[in-house]
Amino acid sequence: MSTIAEPAKVTAGAKGEPQREWRPPSYWPFVAPALIVVLAVIIFPWAYTIWMSLHEWKVGSPTTFVGLANYIRLPSDARFVESVWHTLVYTALSVALPLLFGTLAAVVFHAKFPMRGFLRGLFILPMMATPVAIALVWTMMFHPQLGILNYLLSLIGLPPQLWVFHPATVIPSLVMVETWQWTPLVMLIVLGGLAAIPSEPYESALIDGATRWQTFRYISLPLIMPFLFIASMIRMIDAVKSFDIIFAITQGGPGSASETINLYLYSVAFVYYDVGYASAIVVVFFALIVALAGALLHLRQRTHWNDAGGVA
Amino acid sequence: MSPLRRLLGNIGLAFALIVIVSPAVLFFIWMLSLSVKFEIDNASYPPVFIPERFNWGNYAAVLDSKRFSTYFMNSLIVTGTATAFALLVGVPAGYGLARMRAHKAAVVILIARITPGLSYLIPLFLLFQWLGLLGTLWPQIIIHLVVTVPIVIWIMIGYFETTPMELEESALIDGATSWQVFRYVALPIARPGIAVAFILAVIFSWNNFVFGIVLAGRETRTLPVAVYNMISFDQLSWGPLAAAALIVTLPVLLLTVFAQRQIVAGLTAGAVKGG
């Protein structure tokens, strides 16, 4: 930027011609149209949501200002509290499992082999496929009598399960789908991390006679930590918001055994049309996501994960 | 390394790859199998993997139904318009933000990324109702911008930050306007980045479900919503249901396999996902 700060010296000296006066152009005209769109479809809904959350507001009835009453109602709403727990359990499992499997897969994909691109393409199919379409097939696979999953269990001598049709197994079963779907994203992020590691540490480890596990544990793992952090952050945000899969497979059932905050929010807003209360849930939901993200950040600083350059 | 150890290593790698890729591949093969079987085969236990008789009628039943073409057109119009519009405003915006080094602006994109899609629906639903737009495709087109615009801006900021500045600066010194520089210098170089943004915006808009279940009426359903609505009516006929599901997601699957390089680049650059 020093060329702009002192143009006369640099340019006149370099080109030997009189300095033409120019300033960096204004880039606002490029941004303005998008800004209007973002204001309309992102900022406006946010502002309006906060406004609605302070009102008793049901579709079709007159609205009244009630202050924070909607927020005060939340802690005593048993169904909401339960949905928070479901969300936390679902999220914890849906971060941990894809992180584990995704890292393992990345280590394998880091090798050089023929058709690598094609196989990587196949591997990421679950996360690109239309969620409702795959949810439908999973529902058929979960079927207690005719589903393929119970048949596979019987092959290895395990008793049949009720999967998503029983309150005790519904969340683990949905996590299984979520893990199947989103392990590829973790793999891609970690693979990017592995690709960024220089080869020197590996060479000296090879000379020192380190085993494969030691190389991974003491060279690769510390260096991909920032990428694991980014992956867990993204995974957390997506798992908390998970909607399509749960809605299409169980709609929060059986009973309300798999009703997460997002599913409950849908009922409040578009089944009961209690949009004031639903707006309060949106605000608290968003605060929860930000808090979880903050907790992850804090964890990262506590463990002194070094920053070898992020992906984003 | 001895040839034997290398061979063993290769066999180990091949085995690991099969283990890793098979959950994805077997799932879609099973989906295909369900979609080409007669009901008697789909309802048999133990399951039939490769049927003796193929029932292509499952596909014919879906494709021939009068509504399917309506829903397909709806999906095409919603995704097409929302993506085109997002490129129109998002590519220049990505350029402007990259050149202004306005990293703070990314916070808005980040908020959009964190916010659950459902939360946009409540205020915008009321707005569309007030404007009398419900029953047309406009509400869905507009709300899909929530998905497509942040993806395009995010990817284009990243792309324009890596393109060389020297050409642009010398063009500016020679008296070109900033619009001319964008149009004739920056834009041609950015074509690969635009392709990435286009592909990802199309996929995430096409896949979107939550906006449709609230905003779509009988005539304005997109394909994911239409497939979901088939469940309640045809609970027991798995063949046509699986066929419909495969038809809906097939364009995305093909795009993923053939454009995997761009998709991987885009996803790891911004790690974006809509909705």
Structure description:
The complex is a heterodimer of chains A (312) and B (275). Chain A has 312 residues and is mostly helical. Chain A has one domain: MetI-like (MetI-like fold, Orthogonal Bundle), CATH 1.10.3720. Chain A contains 15 helices and 2 strands. Chain A has helices at 2-5, 7-15, 28-53, 69-73, 78-109, 116-123, 125-128, 131-142, 148-155, 170-195, 200-207, 212-241, 244-249, 261-270, 275-302, and strands at residues 55-56, 64-65. In chain A, strands 1-2 form a two-stranded antiparallel ribbon. Chain A starts with a helix and ends in a 10-residue tail after the last helix. Chain B has 275 residues and is an all-alpha fold. Chain B has a single domain (57-270), classed as MetI-like (MetI-like fold). Helix content of chain B is 78%, strand content 0%. Chain B has 14 helices and no strands. Chain B has helices at 3-35, 39-42, 57-64, 66-100, 106-114, 117-131, 138-162, 166-173, 178-189, 191-207, 210-215, 223-233, 238-258, 260-270. In chain B, helix 8 packs antiparallel against helix 9 and helix 10 packs across helix 14. The longest helix of chain B has 35 residues, at 66-100. The termini of chain B are far apart. The model of chain B has no long low-confidence stretch (mean pLDDT 88). At the A-B interface, helix 3, helix 5, helix 6, helix 7 and helix 8 of A face helix 1, helix 4, helix 5, helix 6 and helix 7 of B.
Task: Output the keywords.
heterodimer; A: 312 residues; mainly alpha; MetI-like fold; 15 helices; globular; disordered N terminus; disordered C terminus; B: MetI-like fold; 14 helices
CATH fold-type name of chain A: MetI-like fold
Instruction: Classify the secondary structure makeup of chain A into a structural class.
Output: mainly alpha
Strand count, sense and barrel status of the largest sheet of chain B are: none
What number of structural domains do the residues of chain B give? 1
CATH topology of chain B: MetI-like fold
H and E order of chain B: HHHHHHHHHHHHHH
Q: Total helix count of chain A? A: 15
Give the end-to-end Cα distance of chain A, rounded to a whole number of Å: 24 Å
Shape of chain A: globular
Helix content of chain B: over 70%
Main sheet properties of chain A:
2 strands, antiparallel
- Bin the strand percentage of chain A: under 5%
Structural class of chain B: mainly alpha
| Cα distance spanning the termini of chain B | 50 Å
Work out the oligomeric state of the chains in this entry.
Answer: heterodimer
CATH architectural label of chain B: Orthogonal Bundle
- pLDDT < 50 runs, ≥5 residues of chain B: none
- The percentage helix of chain A is 55-70%
Q: Write the H/E string of chain A, N to C.
A: HHHEEHHHHHHHHHHHH
